[in-house]
Amino acid sequence: MTELRSPATGTSQASAAWTGQKGVPTRMLLLRHGQTALSVQRRYSGHGDPELTELGHQQAAAAAARLAAVPDVAAVLSSPLLRARQTAAAVAEATGAPLLVRPRLIETDFGGWEGLTFAEAKARNPELHARWLGSEDVAAPDGESFADVGRRVDAECAAIVEEFPGATVVLVSHVTPIKLLLRTALQGGSGILYRLHLDLASLSEATFYPDGGASVRLVNDTSHHPVG
Question: Tens digit of pLDDT for each residue in 134-191?
Fold first, then answer.
């Protein structure tokens, strides 16, 4: 299991110094929610609100047990959707940190494709689906583009850095917002959205500095997952 080291330790201080970033960073532990019935069936799950499956609750408990070992978690910040709030509740109980719902951490609104598989959405709107796969500015029918999600996630990131300066916070969210936070930290391109895989209840870590710098320390870690 990968150790989640505090950025206040010697190794992190050294890495911050040589990259030229100034100030004490806000450390964000990025946790994807646990399994739902829609994720089992590989269906688009955006603003729909399924609950965790039994395995999803086990995944949340395992992640919470891991995060309980992280010192001084200032807050657990959650998407408003049930699957995220259920995961976040387990983390908040294990860490003793307050659970705060943050609306901008919600998943992409997939509109008319909500609940469909990739193949079903492609068959329903073949031309639009092809354009959607090639451009962040294209939205699902009556839905939200990845560019729209990126703007609200960037605004939320800036708000968290301002609200929790130098603190460690756990963000419980979804595939798209977590990918976009990692992309912002890496200053990456749109390929991160389409090529980066994030498992259910996976943990990633990024630190964001008040001067605008950032670093990524962990991506898609599932070493805490229940066995069997």
Answer: 999 999 999 999 999 999 999 999 999 999 999 999 999 999 999 999 999 999 998 8
Query: 149-158 burial, b for 16+ CB within 10 Å, e for fewer?
Result: bbebbeebbe
Show which residues are catalytic: 33, 107
CA 71 to CA 56: how far, in whole Å?
25
Going by C-alpha positions, the residue among 57, 58, 92 that lies closest to residue 170 is 92
Write out the two tokens for 116.
């469909």
Q: Which residues make beta-bridge pairs with 100?
A: 77
CA end-to-end distance (rounded Å), the chain: 16
Show the tokens assigned to 74: 């200032």
pTM: 0.92
Nearest Cα neighbor of 36 from 100, 79, 99 is: 79
| Nearest residue to 102 (alpha-carbon basis) of 28, 38, 200, 6 | 28
- Residues 169-180, buried b or exposed e (16+ Cβ, 10 A)? bbbbbbbbbbbb
Q: Residue type for 107, please?
A: E
Q: What are phi and psi of 205, to 5 degrees?
A: -145, 130
Beta strands in the chain (DSSP E): 26-32, 73-78, 99-101, 168-173, 203-208, 214-221
Tokens of 157: 């990131």
